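Two quick folds needed for the group meeting slides. Do the first one here.
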Amino acid sequence: MGPDVPLLNEYKQEFFWKRFPQTVLGGPRFKLGYCAPPYVYINQAVLFLTPWLFGGVSTLLCQLQLLQELYAAVLSGMLMFAAAAGVQALALHAARRSGTVVERLGAPNNLVDEEEVEFTQCISPETVRFIAPGKRFGLNVVLHTVLAGVLCGFGTWYVFLGRLTALYGSTGASLVVFVLSWVTLCIAEYSLIVNTAAETATFQAQDTYEITPLTRPLYVFIFIAVDLADR
């Protein structure tokens, strides 16, 4: 390769900067190659932060001593389960309205990443299918929804502020760990309730049976399992 030849050409650079944030955040597409209405980004941000909202409410109730830690974790898990079920129901309804078959095992469209979506309304079928395309199989709908609730419940229990403060002995350090932990949990949850992102080096995900969405939650469960075993 000559010294004047770029490592990535213009198209690959554009593709990289669109895909890299999506990979890091676990799926949200905040950078598109075309102009999209603001509600497309807002809806994705709301979905991404929903686990943190439920966990934050449960943590606050626990800090105010209105709920015990166990009940606060159960509340967070139940709320997340209900939200995940609602997202899957909305995705299924949108697919039926637009006549889209849920199980797509045929030849994929290699240009799907570059297709421009025409958004008409905030919750139109096109918008819903873009943000939450739904699962291919009914078993995955049930499994991922249940895992989303369980992960949020255990995650809330794992990062209670009182527990972190007792562990680190500093409120500032506890807040930093609390924020970073919930960002990690939001990334893992997004893979379950919506869809996981293809890796940056992959143009199109080749995950027919939707195994990839389970990898990020698995890493989180490993850390929680170690803490549970220690206790």
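Then this one, please, same format:
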Amino acid sequence: MSLLGKVEAEVEIKASADRFHEVNSKRVAEVPKLSPNFIQRVDLLEGEWGQVGSVMCWYFLFDGKAVMSKEVIETIDDKNHLVTFKVIGGILKEMYKSFKFIIQATPKGEGSLVHWTLEYEKLNADDPDASSMLQFAVGQSKDIDAHLALE
């Protein structure tokens, strides 16, 4: 059994691809306000908000527990509305050898289609895949979309 894994999901939202991408790249500091049901707080540890190489800690509730994920922005592709976050510490590093979040928003009609890809390497073959984290990410997208509609 392979230790490498990838799970993907798409969610249709009402916000434009530009607006959703901007939140996940340039407006990361505002995510707790835009997604209060999922993200409690985001702290910038190194670099500047919205810059490749910036390191931040995300604090959130996952499986009923308050947890933290330390991540670095690896890629920001404004043309393709794509952002990649690489996990470098916290709860996901305890569960996986490596873990990445890839978020891409594609224009669709008045709104957009958000595609989440989670790439990971398990520590052990019998460890679970990342499907519960994928469902968390999809839910967070819907939460952000609902709050963007109010802006």
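Slide caption for protein two: DSSP finds four helices and seven strands in the chain.
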